[in-house]
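FORM 12-B: Structure-to-Sequence Request
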C-alpha cells in the first residue's frame, strides 16, 4: 500500500497518479486518509499531554503526603485516576484511527510510474517491441482445441466430468510436453541466477494481504473456508511472502527467486469464444520469477527480467510483442507493467503469456519488507518485482497452432531434450 509519508508530502502527485490509473474518487480517498491521520495525530498530542500531566500530578501526590496534606493528596489521586481513564480512551481512539487508516489505504491502488501511458483500457497500451515471424498456415489449419481432439492430447470434457469447466486433463505426449516446458523454464531461470524454491499452493490471509490479492475485490481467489486458507493465483504470493517481516542487508540485494506452481483463479464472468480451450483456465501451470531490490536498482532489475522473458520467447521460436500497459489497464498493485503476448496464428489474435511488473515499495509496505542501508544502517522499504517466465496454457495453445504440420505439431528445438520427441501427435504416446 502507499505510505502515509508519500501521501502527506506529495499529495497532488499521488492524486494525479491515481487519476491516471482511472481510480474513481481519487481526491476524496486521499483527503479521507489525511483526515484520519489528522485525528490520529491530534489524539497522539492529547495523549502525550495527558501522560505528562499525570506524571506531574503523581510527583505532587508524594510531596503533599509528606506535608500532611491528605485531603489535597486525595483530590490529586482522583485527578490522576481521571487522567488514566482519559489516557485509555485516547489510546482506543488512536487504535481505531490506525485501523481505519489501514482499511482506507488497502482500497487505494499503487500510483503508476511517470512513463506509464495514458489510457482507460487495453486500447491505450503501447507496443514497445516485436519479435519472431508470424507463420503462414494453410487454409485448413486448426485451432488448438481441434488439434487436441485430433491427436488426443487434451481432454476438456473429461476435466468437466472430474471437476468442471476450466480444468483440462493432459494426456500422453501433452502431459510430457507440459513437464518439458516447466523444466525448460526453470532451468533457464537457474542459468540467469534465480534460486529455485518449491512453495506451498495454499497461503494464509496474511500472505494474500501482503502481496495485494486480499482484500479480494474481484472474487478471483479460491477460499478454503474451514481453514481460512487461499489457493494461490500465482507463485508470486508465497515466494514474495518469504520476505514478509524481514530486514535484509543491502549487500544481499537483489534477491532472485523462481518457482514452478499450479495456479488457481476463479476468473468470474469469463465466458465466450475468447476463453475457449486453453485461452483461459481456472487451473494452470506457471513458472514465476521474483526479485527483491533497492529502490535505486529496481528498474535495472525490471529490464533484466524483461530480457530474460524475451529470451524464452526467442528460444521457443514464436512470434511475440511486448506491451507497456497504460494506467487504466494496469493491476491494482503495479507501478509499471509490461505484457508479453504471443501470436496465435489459427485464432488470428494475440494471447497474453507474461506480465513483468515493478511494484516499487507498494507490496513491501504491506509485507514490512525492508533492507538495512550499508552507509548508515538505516532501514528502508525494498522494491518488489515479479514476472511470468512463463505461463503454460497460452504458450501451449500458440505453439500447437503455429507449429502444426502434416505429421502433427512440431516441438520447438529447445524443448526436444526435455520431452524426448520432436512431434506432438497421437503416435507412440504411451
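FORM 12-B RESPONSE
SEQUENCE OUT:
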Amino acid at each position: 500500500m502507499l505510505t502515509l509519508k508519500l501521501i502527506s508530502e506529495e499529495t497532488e502527485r499521488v492524486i494525479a497518479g491515481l487519476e491516471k490509473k482511472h481510480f474513481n474518487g481519487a481526491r476524496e480517498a486521499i483527503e479521507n486518509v489525511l483526515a484520519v491521520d489528522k485525528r490520529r495525530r491530534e489524539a497522539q498530542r492529547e495523549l502525550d499531554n495527558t501522560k505528562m500531566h499525570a506524571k506531574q500530578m503523581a510527583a505532587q501526590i508524594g510531596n503533599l503526603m509528606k506535608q500532611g496534606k491528605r485531603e489535597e493528596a486525595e483530590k490529586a489521586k482522583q485527578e490522576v485516576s481521571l487522567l488514566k481513564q482519559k489516557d485509555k480512551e485516547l489510546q482506543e481512539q488512536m487504535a481505531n484511527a490506525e485501523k481505519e487508516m489501514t482499511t482506507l489505504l488497502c482500497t487505494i491502488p499503487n500510483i503508476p510510474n511517470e512513463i506509464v501511458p495514458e489510457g482507460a483500457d487495453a486500447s491505450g497500451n503501447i507496443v514497445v517491441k516485436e519479435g519472431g515471424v508470424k507463420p503462414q498456415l494453410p487454409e485448413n489449419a486448426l485451432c488448438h482445441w481441434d488439434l487436441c481432439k485430433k491427436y488426443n492430447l487434451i481432454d476438456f470434457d473429461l476435466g468437466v466430468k472430474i471437476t468442471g469447466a476450466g480444468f483440462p486433463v493432459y494426456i500422453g505426449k501433452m502431459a510430457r510436453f507440459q513437464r518439458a516446458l516447466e523444466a525448460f523454464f526453470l532451468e533457464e531461470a537457474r542459468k540467469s541466477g534465480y534460486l529455485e524454491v518449491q512453495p506451498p499452493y495454499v497461503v494464509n490471509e496474511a500472505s494474500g494481504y501482503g502481496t495485494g490479492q486480499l482484500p479480494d475485490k474481484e472474487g478471483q481467489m479460491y477460499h478454503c473456508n474451514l481453514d481460512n486458507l487461499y489457493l494461490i493465483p500465482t507463485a508470486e504470493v508465497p515466494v514474495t511472502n518469504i520476505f514478509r517481516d524481514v530486514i535484509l542487508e543491502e549487500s544481499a540485494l537483489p534477491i532472485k527467486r523462481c518457482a514452478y506452481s499450479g495456479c488457481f483463479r476463479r476468473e468470474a464472468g469469463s465466458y465466450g469464444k475468447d476463453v475457449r480451450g486453453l485461452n483461459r483456465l481456472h487451473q494452470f501451470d506457471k513458472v514465476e520469477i521474483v526479485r527483491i531490490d533497492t529502490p535505486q536498482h529496481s528498474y535495472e532489475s525490471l529490464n533484466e527480467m524483461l530480457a530474460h522473458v524475451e529470451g524464452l520467447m526467442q528460444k521457443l521460436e514464436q512470434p511475440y510483442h511486448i506491451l507497456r500497459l497504460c494506467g487504466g489497464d494496469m493491476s491494482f498493485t503495479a507501478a509499471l507493467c509490461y505484457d508479453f503476448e504471443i501470436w496465435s496464428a489459427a485464432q488470428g489474435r494475440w494471447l497474453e503469456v507474461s506480465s513483468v511488473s515493478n511494484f516499487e515499495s507498494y507490496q513491501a509496505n504491506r509485507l514490512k519488507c525492508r533492507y538495512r542501508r550499508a552507509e548508515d544502517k538505516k532501514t528502508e522499504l525494498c522494491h518488489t518485482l515479479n514476472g511470468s517466465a512463463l505461463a503454460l496454457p497460452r504458450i501451449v495453445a500458440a505453439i500447437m497452432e503455429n507449429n502444426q504440420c502434416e505429421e502433427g505439431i512440431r516441438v520447438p528445438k529447445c524443448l526436444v531434450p526435455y520431452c524426448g520427441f520432436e512431434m506432438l501427435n497421437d503416435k507412440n504416446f504411451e
